[in-house]
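User: These chains co-purify. Model them together.
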Amino acid sequence: MSREFPFTKPVWPVQVPAPIPARSTGVYYDTSWSRSKLANRTRSVFVDNVLRPAIHLLARPSVEGAETLNLLDPPLIFVANHCSHLDTPLMLSVLPKRFREKVAVAAAADYFFDRAWKAHLFSLTLAAIPVERKRPDRTSARLAISLIEDGWNLIIFPEGGRSSDGWMQEIRGGAAYMAEHTGRPLVPVYIDGTYAIMSKGGSRLQPGSTKVTFGKPINHVGGEDARHISERIYQEFARLADESSSNWWEATKRAAAGTSPSPRGPEAAAWLRAWNLPSGSSDGASSRSGGNLQWRQHRQQ
Amino acid sequence: MSPRPGYVLEVDRSTPPVLFWNGEGYLLEKLPPERSRVIYPPDPLHPLEDPIAKIRHALDHPMGDSQPLETLLHPDMRLTIAFDDVSLPLPAMQAPDARQLVIEQVLEMAAEAGVEDVVLLAALSLHRRMTEAELRHALGNRVYNAFEPHGLLLQHDAEDPDGLILLGTTDHGEEVEINRRAATSDLLVYVNINLVPMDGGHKSVATGLASYRSVRHHHNAHTMTHSRSFMDMDHSELHSANWRMGRFIRESGVKVFQIETTLNTNAFPSQFSFLQRREWEWTPRDRAGFFASSKALALMGDRTRRTLFHSIKAPMQLTSVQAGEVEAVHQSTLTNVFDQQLVHVDGQTDILTMGLPYISPYNVNSIMNPILVACLGLGYLFNMYRGKPLVREGGVVIMRHPTPWAFNTTHHPSYIDFFEEVLADTTDPVQISKYEEAYATDPWYIQLYRTGHAYHGVHPFYMWYWCAHALEHLSSVIVIGGDRRAVKRLGFRPASTLDDALEMAEDSVGSQPTITHIRVPPLMMAEVS
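Assistant: Joint model of the two components:
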C-alpha cells in the first residue's frame, strides 16, 4: 500500500496561510458532557472496578493523613506534586469516596486535549478539564472556579507538568488563585514512588510501592495574595516530603525549625540530583542495575 | 465572512498530487515542482437568503429603462416566457431549478394581471429538444402540468418555416430571423441562467430563439478567431454580432424583459465534496471518498459510470437575480459572475494542463464524444480568460480525457459524419466551413433535429469553430489517456501519461517549461496580467 497522499495526510503548502485551528480542542474543549449523570456513573464504575484495582496491583499505595479529610466538607482543592502519569489515577484511587464521586482533574490542555479522541477519553474516564499551561489564559481558571463553586472537588498539579528528574519543580500560582477566588481550602498531597514506577519519558512500567501523604488544609486568609498562599503550599510540601522519607514527628520538628530539606532537590548537576533522590523515588531500573554497583551498595547501607 | 477568492498555488516538492478529471473518473497527478502552478477557483459564494423575495424584488424594481413587470402585464396581451435549455446549468442543479423559481413568480404576476395568452418557450437555438424529464426538472411539475398538456409549452424550432419571422438585416448584413411567437408577443420575458460570462445579454434572444440563417452570421471561424475571448464581452466578436442583432430586434418592436440569474459554484453534493476542495485541505473522509469512489468507478462499465455521473444534481444556489432592460441587466449579471469566478493570475505559461470532466453543455445525459472533448478543452476552458490566454502563443495544451470513439446516435447524428468525413479531410476551422452548408441543410439531420432529440446538423461545425482561437494560438494539443485513433483524428497528439505528455510538449516549448494546471470544475475565469 502506498505511503503517499491520498493514503497519508496531505502536506499543507508553506505559501498558504494555515487556518486558525478549530476551537473544539485544547482549552476550548467543552467538557460539560463529562459531568452529566450518565458520564459520572460510567466514570464511577470505571474508577471503582478498573482503575483502583489496577493501581493497587501496580502501585500498592499506602496513605498517610487521610483522616484529616474527615473534618472537611467538599469541595476541596487537592494540590499534589507531579512526577508521573500515575499520579492522577493514584489520587483517584486513594481519595475517600465522598470526594472521589465528584472530583475533576486539571489536565494540560496541550497534552490531554490536543486531539478530540484524547479529550473525549480523559474527560470521561478522569473527569479531566483542560488547563492552559503555556500562556496566561483565564478560560481554564474560570472553568475550574465555576466547578468548585458548583460543588466539585478539584485535583490540581501546581507544578504545571511532570517532573523530569523526580524532584519537585517550582509551584505556579493557579491553585492559590483558585483558593483566593473560591475561599475553599487547599489540601496539599505529597505523592512518593510513582516516579520509580513510571517516570516521565520512561518506556515501561516497573511495579512498586507508593505513599500518598495528605497535608494540613491551607485556608485563604482575608487579604492574603496568591503569591503568599503558594509559599505556604510549598512549605507544606517540604514538610510532607520530609515526612514521607522519615516520620511525622521528625518532619514536623524540622519544619518548625525551618530546616526541612528542599523538595526541589540540591542545586547541582543532573547526576548529583539523581544520586540524591530519595530512595522511594528512585527509578526502579536504576535500582536493579545499580544493585551490582559498589557505590550504590554503599549508599544503601 | 466572504468566501475565499481563487488561489494560485506554486508547486514545490511537498505539494500533494493534484486532482485531474478524466471523463467519468478522476485521478491524482504529481506536477513537476518549482515550475508548475495550480489555479483553484474561488469558494462558492453565499446564496441569497430568500430567493423568492429577491426575484419578486427584481421584477418590481427592474434595471435600465424598463418598467416593473407588473405594469407590463395586461389581460388581453400575448405573453411569451422563454427560458434557457438543458445546456444550463452544469451539472443540472438540485430542484428547484432557478428557471422554475423565476417562471413561477412571473406566472403568478401574469395570473394576477389576468393574462390569458401565455406560452412557455424553450430557447433551444440549434440544440436538441429537451425530454419531458428535463423539462419537468427545469420548470417543476406544477408549471409543466399546467402548460404542456395544452400545447402551451413549446420548444423553439430553428427550422420551422411557419414558426420563424425575418425581422430584417443589420447594417453589417446579418439577417435577423427569430421565433415568430416570441417576436409577435406583446412581451417576451427571457429567463436566463448565467453560468459563464458568455451567457445572457442580447445573445439570449438573438441566438437562443434564432434560426440557422441568423445564427450562422456569428457562429463561424472568423468570429471565433476574433473573439479574445468569447467569454470577455468587450473583446468578443461573437458578442458584438449578437449585440447588433439584439438591438435590431429591439428596434423592430420586440419588447424583451430580461431576467438573468447567477448561481454559486457548489457543483457537487456532499459525498463528492472532495472534488472541489483543495487537495491539502482534504480530510480523512475526503481521502477515503476519493479512494473508494475511484476504485468503484474503475470497476464499473462505461454506461453505468455515465448514468451515475449524469444523475448528479449540483447543490447550486442562486446568488443574484437581475431583471429589466437587457443591457443594463447583463452588466450587473457580469459583475456577479466575475465575483464568483474570477481569479487573478500573473503571467502566461508555456503549458496549460486540464483534466476534462464528464460533462459539457452539449452532452447532458449523453456521451462526451471526441468533438465535444475538443470543444470543452479548447473552446470553453481555454477561453475562460480575460486579458490574455493563460498559455502563451505557441504554447501547448495538455488535456486528460479518455476521448472514446463513441457517439450518441440520437443526440449527435451529424457529429458522427462530421468526425468520419470532415475531420478526416481537414481540421482547419476555416477549411471545414466548405462542408457547412451541406450539413446544415441536410433534410435528414433537419428531420432529426425537429422531431427527435438531435442537435442540428451544423452543430459539430460550431463546436469546431469554438476551438478556432485555441488552434490558432497553440503550437500543439496533447491528450492523455485518450483513444489514440480518435485523438489523432482530431489532429491532436496522444500520450499515455502526464510525464510523456510533458516530454512531448518540450518539442514545442523547449526544456523546463512552465506549467499551469486549472483545477476545474467548478468553473473559474482567469484574469491574466
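The longest strand of chain B covers residues 391-400.
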